[in-house]
């Protein structure tokens, strides 16, 4: 288990400041749900953490070490994206995609089978191409691929937003189960507070590139201090939670 910390992180694209002096900590072994509307800077913050874009200012620390000093492969951070189909090579078998992310010296055939079982997929599907899988199955493959890199911290960026509600439930239940079984530290990003509150120990609310509220999930949900948090809470139907709890 590892701690991921953002210290005064800013990201600027030309004249646009996407992220503005963000301080945020993902404690070891916990899930921090980062919620906010589209364009609030959530995905930009995640992209900086995994090395896709360099921060304009500030530092991103993994267990106290600035991740910019580490090679991307050595950062111990893996990201699962919104669209699993675009993140998987359509010409490569799902087993090949998972194996590609593994470190050297691993029995790749055995590890692919173990990871597919871990995400509730039949290991016999390892030779299948992504096009032969449903959206929910492809997202399970994307999770397995991320876990193949043996991450210290997992970043999940809108991983259920393109799925039907019933399929969302199965994926969210899986994420929650994996996090608990593996003791993962996780930054879980969504525009939907109903999704975030289902999996998170802590919740951070992001608007226009800044964190406007952050705290234990129960506290933020029961007594939101910022008007924007209250807006998100009012727009998050609680009926989704019961649907997800019934999903398998």
Keyword list:
248 residues; Rossmann fold; 2 domains; 6-stranded mixed sheet; 4-stranded antiparallel sheet; 10 strands; 37% helix; globular
Instruction: Provide the CATH architecture of the largest domain.
Output: 3-Layer(aba) Sandwich
- Helix-strand makeup class: alpha/beta
CATH superfamily of the largest domain: P-loop containing nucleotide triphosphate hydrolases
Helix percentage? 25-40%
* Number of E-type strands: 10
The N- to C-terminal Cα distance equals 27 Å
Largest sheet: 6 strands, mixed
Please write the string of helix (H) and strand (E) elements. Answer: EEEHEEEHHHHEHEHEEHHH
Bin the strand percentage.
Answer: 25-35%
- Average pLDDT, all residues: 90
As for the number of domains, it is 2
And the CATH topology of the largest domain?
Rossmann fold
Shape assignment = globular
| CATH class category name of the largest domain | Alpha Beta
Radius of gyration: 18 Å
